[in-house]
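User: what does the whole thing look like in 3D?
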Amino acid sequence: MLILGIDPGGASTGYGLVRLEQGRLVRVRSGEIRPSRKSTLPERIRFIYDGVTELLGSLAIDEVAVEDLYQGVNPRTASRIGHVRGVVLLAAAESGVPVFEYPPNEVKSAVVGNGLATKEQVRFMVQRILALSAPISSSDESDALAVAICHCHRCGEGVVGR
Amino acid sequence: MLILGIDPGGASTGYGLVRLEQGRLVRVRSGEIRPSRKSTLPERIRFIYDGVTELLGSLAIDEVAVEDLYQGVNPRTASRIGHVRGVVLLAAAESGVPVFEYPPNEVKSAVVGNGLATKEQVRFMVQRILALSAPISSSDESDALAVAICHCHRCGEGVVGR
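Assistant: Here's the predicted 3D structure for the full assembly of 324 residues, as structure tokens:
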């Protein structure tokens, strides 16, 4: 079972591929899709879409888990993150891979045991759960791994919104 | 000069193709891209993306004008509209067509002369400006034609956000 976790963001979209092997979670690959800040908005969105499409095409991913909108975000930011979520959902639909969504507090609860955990706590626990020898370099990357871990724990309860 | 105006929405995305011919605005085609309500969110987003891509592929469109977020919208709605805007911007980027954004009050000002005009007033004025014999059937369609008209009036001032 191979899960692609995505933490959508306009400046940087984190991704984390996690394999569930005999009840153990193993990191396969993770990183950030980071378009150039000099690009136009449509170019940046295309860059993220191409990156996600490439990930979905390169490995036999079973399911995609996406971090949902966090509460208290302003409408302008929600729209900008919505752009990225839109092209992630599109790439998944085109690949025929089911998508699941989890709100940030649920992701934090699944990984840290506290829905109000800080990004640092999430990063620390993701490293422990996946038994990584080195710290994860960015919080977008650890958040993406966290949503993939959350999905494995919840067995796909986070059905995508309608 | 052929302009595609888009009014993005999750339930229905309006589109309006307007040609600027010797200072006169002519409607080429307009309508709604309306995915099935029974589809999942990723399927609906894909339906809208395919619809916009088809429009961009079928005619030599010079520029795309998209209605920007209206103020006072809640973050959840902003995110849902953001999904659609994301795939519209992606389709435009893939077609190499420049995109321009206009806030709703600017669109209303350009068409009705009042930034607080109602949807009915916009629909009435769009019908007059384009000299259409029959009323426009939906406000998503007339809003899309309105943003195309606004773009023609403003000569592409509405540079897409970064």
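In plain terms: The longest strand of chain B covers residues 24-33. Chain B touches chain A at residues 40-43, 45-46, 49, 69, 71, 73-87, 89-90, 92-94, 99, 160-162 (CB under 8 Å).
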